[in-house]
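Curious: why these numbers?
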Amino acid sequence: MSLFKTKSWLECLQCHRKYDLDSVRYSCDCGGLLDLTRDLGKIDGKKLLKTWEKRWGMKSGVESSGVWRYRELILDAPDDKIITKQEGNTRLYPAGKAGEYAGLKNFLLKHEGENPSGSFKDRGMTCGITAANVYGAKCVACASTGNTSASMAAYAAKCGFRSIIFIPSGKIAYGKLAQALAYGGLTLQIDGNFDDAMTLVQEICEKLDIYLLNSINPFRIEGQKAICFEILQQLDWKVPDWFVIPGGNLGNSSALSKGLMELHELGIIKKIPRIAVIQASGANPLYKMWKFNTPFKAVKDPETIATAIKIGNPVSWEKSLRGIRWSNGVVEEVTEQEIMDAKAMVDAAGIGAEPASCCSVAGAKKLVDAGIISSDESVVGILTGNVLKDPDAVINYHMDNLKDKGIHGTFANRPISVKATLEAVKAVL
């Protein structure tokens, strides 16, 4: 008997072997990634759309969540097993100065930093930890550059689970580390980078029977699909020409494209938007593969100020590539300077986001300059994390203290020291 109410299964991306959901599994016996798959032929797209519209604006209950509103295409778990913090329901902002900077007339920014723990990870985490609850787990774990750990620790604290976090030693923004500690996560700093932590946590979870909540977990990807569902509902189901999204472990871009594929198959959308995945030039394995048409090869020692995407061996690259090809999309890279200058523009627009988020704006500008995106096309950029996730990066940019990283404060807004007198303030003003 299935643990879940509706017929769905896990299917290998490579060999297409199918597994039922009765037991915990993260990958195929062949080593391939797994997709949560459902029979869309049994879903009426028009009726589903009406159901989602009726749920819009609900004030309480499971379906007031910006993830569980779309539960039919997320995870059909029983209400009493769902662990939610009313995640999602984030704003879609006109890009303002950031749009002018990118050279776009119709540029919107979806701010996932407005989720409960300050990043898009909450959408996947509500689904992943709900699956853990369904399977009867009481202890969860992840490797993280910051946002995943903050989210997992918060959701684990809500439902009384123990959380164990593996982070690269000295390579995590303090805003994110503070969250993991505050929410009670057992935080283990290991020698090595994120990819080393990811290898270790998979071994630990397998040997110690702990539930793994990195994006290799197929349920995490399902929750993150709700980003595109919510954007399109905010746009009254009018599909933009482009989605532009940062690429780190590539779970988010995988989820975005998977959600769009399902909506298209159901007839809810007719147009296929193009997807642009943007990587930092110091952590760019997917970009290199795409640009030079070579086999995937991990970046051994990734390095970027955008710590959320400082990942050299992304777990979900195959799923991400599938979606890019389906959408006739592109992969681009941006430099450290381009990231931080774009961030300055996002912040100056009164929106604000962490460095990794601003790859969306930096990448959009680069693609406009290259003539790949037209200035009059409609574009939605995904901002993945809150501006306070990495306050050191903000302050050091505006104080022009990042020269050792090759970054100059092009749009620096330095604080000014003045005497505590009216005359001194008037002189500055």
Summary: The longest strand covers residues 162-168. Residues 194-208 form the longest helix (15 residues).
